[in-house]
Amino acid sequence: MKKIVLIVGLVSMVAFTSCKDNASSKIKTDNVAEAAVRDEAAKAVPVMSFEKAEHDFGTIEQGTPQETVFMFTNTGNAPLIITDAKSSCGCTVPNPPKDPIAPGETGELRVNFNGSGQNQVTKTITVTANTEKGSEILRIKAFVNPKGAAPLGPVK
Predict the structure, then answer these.
(1) Any idea where the domains of the chain sit in the sequence?
(2) pTM of the entire predicted model
(3) Distance of alpha carbon 23 from alpha carbon 79, whole angstroms
(4) Contact 70, 138 (CB under 8 A)
(5) Residues with Cβ < 8 Å from 92, sequence gap 6 or more?
(6) Which residues contact 59 (CB under 8 A, 6 or more apart)?
(7) What is the pLDDT along the chain (156 residues), one digit of tens a residue?
(8) CATH architecture of the region 48-145
(9) Distance between CA atoms of residues 112 and 96, nearest Å
């Protein structure tokens, strides 16, 4: 029994030490260079920089459609791709650009609001893109007067 354990031990020691001698010779320099290029490209990320993150329509009459444009610039070092833009309500419809925005280029996100609601109304638009954060939040707001209501303030 001792001889079997000794033989198995010697065979395994020879097997494990023989592989380590050739490990460094198995590295291919082409693969190392290719991995370095791939890792550098993975660091390239688009950045979405908006001129403003909120728009106030002021006081509007109920049911009066409104539109605004959120201008942005890709200040990153990779193409910006907007994959989705959703609003917090069906009364607000975002219209993002469909094409990628190159680094340094500008784009615009149109937002239509149908003027529904009453009093102070605030809606959010969530823009999903291939940025590091993954999404941006924009806001629109308005004070909506009921249709046919008298203007607010003192009456003479």
Answers:
(1) 48-145
(2) 0.69
(3) 40
(4) yes
(5) 111, 112, 113, 114, 123, 125, 140
(6) 142, 143, 144, 145
(7) 777 877 877 777 766 665 555 666 667 777 777 777 777 766 778 999 999 999 999 999 999 999 999 999 999 999 999 999 999 999 999 999 999 999 999 999 999 999 898 899 999 999 999 998 999 999 999 999 988 766 655 655
(8) Sandwich (2.60)
(9) 11
Look up residue 151 and give its two tokens. Answer: 């203007």
**Residue showing tokens 């925005």:** 101
Q: Which of 31, 44, 92 lies closest to 66 in space, CA to CA?
A: 92
Tokens linked to 19 = 């592989």
Structure tokens at 133: 């954060």
Q: Which two tokens stand for residue 110?
A: 């149109």
